[in-house]
Amino acid sequence: MARDYNERCGEYYYKESDLKAVRLEVEKYRDQIKQKTREEVQAKGWDKPAKK
User: Fold this and answer.
1) CA spacing 20 to 30 A to 9: which of 3, 15, 18, 27?
2) Has residue 2 been placed in a domain?
3) What is the pLDDT of residue 41?
4) How many CB atoms lie within 10 A of CB 9?
5) Residues in CB range of 22: below 8 A, 6 or more apart
6) What pLDDT was estimated at residue 17?
7) Is residue 18 part of a domain?
8) CA–CA gap between residue 39 and residue 32 (Å, rounded)
9) Range of the domain at 25
10) Looking at the 3D structure of the chain, how many domains does it have?
11) What are phi and psi of 13, to 5 degrees?
12) What pTM value is reported for the model?
């Protein structure tokens, strides 16, 4: 998913003020973001080894 995003959006630039605002917002909600990410990874089975 990260590679796909980087290929499509790698040339996009943010205004410095926007980037700062988003970083502050992420920091404010960091624990909630991490928990939701863990839940999604488990729900999709991405935490399991790939079957061969």
Assistant:
1) 27
2) no
3) 95
4) 8
5) 14
6) 93
7) yes
8) 11
9) 12-44
10) 1
11) -120, 140
12) 0.59
- First-last CA distance in the chain: 21
CA dist., res. 37 & res. 43, Å (int): 10
CA distance 23 to 17: 10
Pair 47, 41: CB distance under 8 Å: yes
Q: Is residue 34 situated within a structural domain?
A: yes
Q: What are 6's two structure tokens?
A: 């980087």
Q: What is the pLDDT of residue 46?
A: 92
How far apart CA 5 and CA 9 sit, in angstroms, is: 6
pLDDT tens figures, 5-46: 878 887 777 788 998 999 999 999 999 999 999 999 999 999
Query: What does residue 2 show for φ and ψ, rounded to 5 degrees?
Result: -65, -40
**Measured distance CA(34)–CA(38) in Å, rounded:** 6
Note the Cα 22 to chain centre separation in Å: 13
